[in-house]
Amino acid sequence: MDKKAIHSAIESIEMDKNVLADKITDLHFKKNPSLEKKYGHIGRERCREDAIFHLEYLIQAMQIESRELFHHYLEWAWQMLDARNIPKVDLIHNLRYIGIVLSGHLQAEEYNTAAPYLEDGEAFLEKITTDIESYIKPEKPLFEEASRYLELLLSGKRDHAKGLIDSLVKNGVPIKDIYEHIFQTTQYEVGILWQQNKITVAHEHYCTAATQLIMSGLYPIIFSGSKKGLRLVACSVARELHEIGIRMVSDFFEMDGWDTYYMGSNMPDAHLLTAIREYEAQLLAISVTLPIHIQKVEHLISKIRSAPEFNNLKIMAGGYPFNVVPGLSSKIGADASALTANEAVQMANKMME
Fold first, then answer.
1. Do 171 and 253 lie in a common domain?
2. Which of 61, 83, 108, 231 could be joined to 70 by an S-S link, Cβ 3.0–4.6 Å?
């Protein structure tokens, strides 16, 4: 496909996405007059917000040339809308209206680079179902404990949840197992529960904040091990606010004997480069949850690669987009990507040999 046309289409959609969202929303309500009466002004605003999200994810899919990424987003969007009693056909229609609006906004060669994503997306939506599997399954390790932990958090009983974790540690359950089979599993489950409209954003934030607090209570144990002389800097990319996943990864490296420097979320590039230099890091682990931030990681890696002082620095990139798009890490210039914290540690140790 014509790279120049792709770039030009992306640039045009990005620059005018708010105007485009207005046109898409107007067309959606014009074609479906009953929506105005059913949802009113708030419904129109929500439709516009959704149109902006659709355009942003379309842009990102086009940038990395991955229809699969757009499919994953559409599946998530439909499951979220379905849980709020908005039918699949509304999303399918919205994709069609995006196509109509873009066909009148872009040059023909530009539109031809975007159209396949919309057409494939519609075909994909036609055949998928709403089934969402729970992450907390009876066959998984610590199933009962994970179920109880989540139940306590959703009831606002943070202290009881902490007591449960402290009891498991006292009884010899490895902290890595607690991280993987309780903390990680319940965080994924919380995301599903919000997607299914069973909990609110407030519940989601509380569960995350409580888990982070409980994790910090384990640090006297985690940071007490011997060191092997390897140094890691870890963070979420600038403007990415999700951080608990990369924090767990950093803790796994700490438990493996690395000296870790966890920088948190939304880390500005310039300050990150200073930290890498100051701590003489041998490995940078960077996380992205929202696909709209992939390009920021790519730009960051490009800055690092252009500086001779970081020639020996290895870079691992991870998070949701890297789990669903094969080969994404190499596309953006990273040395590796891993699906789990354990895998990340194993791969990093091999790179250091």
1. no
2. 61
pLDDT of residue 1: 61
Of the residues 167, 192, 219, the one at which a domain ends: 219
DSSP state of 293: G
Q: How many Cβ atoms from other residues are within 10 Å of residue 41's Cβ?
A: 8
Number of structural domains in the chain: 3
Q: Token digits for 15? A: 């620059």
Instruction: Look at residue 26 and tell me if it is in a domain.
Output: yes
Give the pLDDT confidence of 288-308 residue by residue, as tens digits. 998 889 989 999 999 999 999
Tokens in use for 226? Answer: 């011997």
Radius of gyration of the chain (CA): 22
Quickly tell me which residue has 């940071």 as its tokens.
223
Q: Which structural domain range is residue 191 located in?
A: 143-219
Q: Are residues 254 and 342 in the same domain?
A: yes
Same domain, 240 and 212: no
DSSP, collapsed to helix, strand or coil, labels residue 315 as strand
What CATH number is attached to the domain comprising 261? 3.40.50.280
Residues 99 and 176 in one domain: no
In angstroms, rounded to a whole number, what is the distance separating the alpha carbons of residues 196 and 190? Answer: 10
pLDDT at 238: 84
CATH number at residue 116: 1.10.490.20
3-state helix, strand, coil in the chain (%, to 5): 65, 5, 25
Q: Read off the pLDDT of residues 150-165 as tens digits, 9 standing for 90 and up.
A: 999 999 999 999 999 9
Same domain, 159 and 75: no
Higher pLDDT, 291 or 273: 273
- Terminal Cα-to-Cα distance of the chain (whole angstroms): 40
Place of tokens 């144990």: 221
Cβ count near 191 (within 10 Å) = 18
Residue 2 has pLDDT above 90, yes or no: no
